[in-house]
Amino acid sequence: MIRKTLCAALLALAPVTVAHAQDGIDQRIVGEFTPSRDMTSAALGATAAFWAALDRGDLAIAYGLATPALRRAVTLEQFAAAVGPTADFGAPRRVLRLTWYHEQPDYPGTVLAVDWQVSEGETLLGGGYLIWQLQADGTFGLLRLDTTDLRE
I want to staple 102 with a disulfide (CB 3.0 to 4.6 A). Which of 7, 33, 81, 133 is the partner? Predict the structure, then answer.
C-alpha cells in the first residue's frame, strides 16, 4: 500500500473544494483560490520535467527544479543520495490528484501537492507526492517530495 502523508491540520483549517483538472485528474483546492488552466499546465509541466530528469538519471537537472529554500537546505549530493535509488521506476508515473493550498499557515503563498503512483500491469511499484511552490516569476519550484518504492 502506498504511504501517503496527509496534512490533516491544513484540511481542518480551510474548506476543500473539489474541481476537475485538466486531463481528468482529480483536483482539490484548500483556501480561497482558483488556479488557472495555465497554472495547472505549468505545474504539470514541471512535474513531467522533474520525472524526465530522474528517468534519464540527470539528478542535477532535477535538483535545479527545487526552490531556492530547498537548495539552501539540501546539497546536490544529499539530494542525489536520497532520490537516486528511486529515480527510475522503468514505467510511467501517473498523477492521481492535485491539491492546491493557498495562503495556509504551513504553506504561505500558493503550493500544489501532486499525488502519483507507478504500476506495471496490476503490480503497484511505488508512489508518493511532490510539493510545488509557485515562484514570483510564475514558475513552480520543488519544495518537498516523498517517494515510496514497493519494488523488491
Answer: 33
Question: Considering the entire predicted model, what is its pTM?
Answer: 0.81
Helix (H) or strand (E) holding 141: strand 140-149
Distance CA 65, CA 67 (A): 7
- Condensed to tens digits (0 to 9), the pLDDT of residues 67-104 reads 999 999 999 999 998 888 777 777 888 999 999 999 98
Can you give the pLDDT at residue 50? Answer: 94
Lookup: cell for 24: 481528468
* 8-149: CATH topology: Nuclear Transport Factor 2; Chain: A, (3.10.450)
CA distance readout (Å), 4 to 56, 127, 143, 145, 148: 26, 9, 17, 11, 9
Length of the chain equals: 152
Q: Which cell goes with 146?
A: 516523498
pLDDT, mean of residues 106-131:
91
Give domain limits for the chain. 8-149
Q: Specify which residues 127 forms β-bridges with.
A: 117, 148
The closest alpha carbon to 129, from 36, 50, 20, 58, belongs to 50
